[in-house]
Amino acid sequence: MRRRTFLQATTAALAAGAMPKLAFGQDNIITFGGSVPMTGAAAETGQNVLQGYQCAVKYINEEMGGAEIGGQSYQLDLNIFDDASDPARATTLIQRQVDEGISFFLGSFGSNIVLPTCSITEAAGRIMVQAGGGSDLIFTQGRKRVFGIFPRASQQFVSSVNMFTSLDPAVKTVSIIYTNDAFSEFQAKGARQTIEQAGIEVVDYIALPAGVSDVSNVLTTIRESAPDILVCTTHDQTSILIARQMVSTETNVPMLYQTLGPQTAAFRDALGNYANGVVTQAYWSERAPYSGSYFGSAADFAKYFRANFDRELTYHMASGAACIVAYVEAAKQAGSLDLDAVRDGLDALDLECFYGRVRFTQDGDGDPDLLGPLLIQRQNGEMEVVAPPDGASAKPVYPAPTWQERA
């Protein structure tokens, strides 16, 4: 059988805006279509997700000899284009891939792109497995062929509040800042509900426009409220903006918690020592006790990734790889590449692997009891797991040092 490595050789052309040429008529090749932000506002995390897809394809093709499905061996191919963080571009080109016959899709990063593109694949009877969209709207409108590695946004805060209620001194007040987009707003609503149910007062609940460039007025309010924890359900660049302006205005809180941003090298590079003490979510850690037949353990995945890729490892790479693994295992269990059979295989999937236990709800999002986030905090430059306690590598630093003390 012909052996090839499919690692998106056309990435440079795609980033430049060229439409990928789809590889049809090639025997025993499974092609995954889709897009990620290789440029634009979400490029930092988009590139991370892309390398997760690439890592799983490389491992399955080269280390496992391909995917054995229904008695035949298949090589995997990626046909991923740069959507430039632009929903309009993504929908146009996803529709073109649908028209050209792609059956299996991988998602972009950001609910603002995943939501319209999964509507296209769903209407066409195709399948999408994705690690970039958590808005409730993706999973509550009756779709049957869209699967997400993460729980929906409104169910992502249980582990966070469990940590809040364990802190000493006790957390009495929380302020919430969110951006007005499909993911962040749902996550903020879920956070507020879960926090208030725990008996903690939400003293501020502040919406930011998606394209915000200044939060100084908002931070004036935060200084007046003086919450024990500031929760920001914001995307990467907005999280950096908020943290930078908190430093410059000396807006100190005992804990700054930002759901997206602090996981990335860009956040570390932008904030330097000020990144220490910031808490964020992570859906995977190489220190977690997960293992299975793909890659081996979580630590083995990290070792393999670092041996083959240059980007700093974040959970997004593991989440992207888990999408490919879920597809392959579902097809294996179905013994077929028939779309309905693979869909049913994903629906029934219950897989222990390097990423944890992968199982989807009846609506297609990640089971919140199994795939909810870990809490991580940058301490002395290292990302430490601080919750839940049974998976923690360090205790949370709370109250955090002031910005002046971190300089």
Protein described:
Pfam families: Peripla_BP_6 (PF13458). Residues 1-23 form the signal peptide. Residues 388-407 are annotated as: Disordered. Keywords: Amino-acid transport, Signal, Transport. This is ABC transporter substrate-binding protein. With 407 residues, the protein is α/β, with parallel strands linked by helices. It folds into two domains: 11-153 and 286-371, Rossmann fold, CATH 3.40.50; 155-283 and 374-406, Rossmann fold (3-Layer(aba) Sandwich). 39% of the residues lie in helices and 20% in strands. The protein has helices spanning 11-15, 43-63, 87-99, 111-123, 136-139, 158-164, 182-197, 216-225, 236-248, 265-271, 298-308, 315-334, 339-348, 368-371, 403-406, and strands at residues 29-36, 67-69, 72-82, 104-106, 127-130, 146-148, 173-179, 201-208, 229-233, 255-258, 279-282, 350-353, 356-359, 374-379, 382-387. It has a six-stranded mixed sheet with strand order 2-3-1-4-5-6, sandwiched between helices. Strands 8-7-9-10 form a four-stranded parallel sheet, with helices on both faces. It has a three-stranded antiparallel sheet with strand order 11-14-15. Strand 4, helix 4 (111-123) and strand 5 form a beta-alpha-beta unit. The longest helix is centred in the first third of the chain and has 21 residues, at 43-63. The protein is globular. The protein starts with 10 loop residues before the first helix and ends with a helix. Residues 1-25 have low confidence and may be disordered.
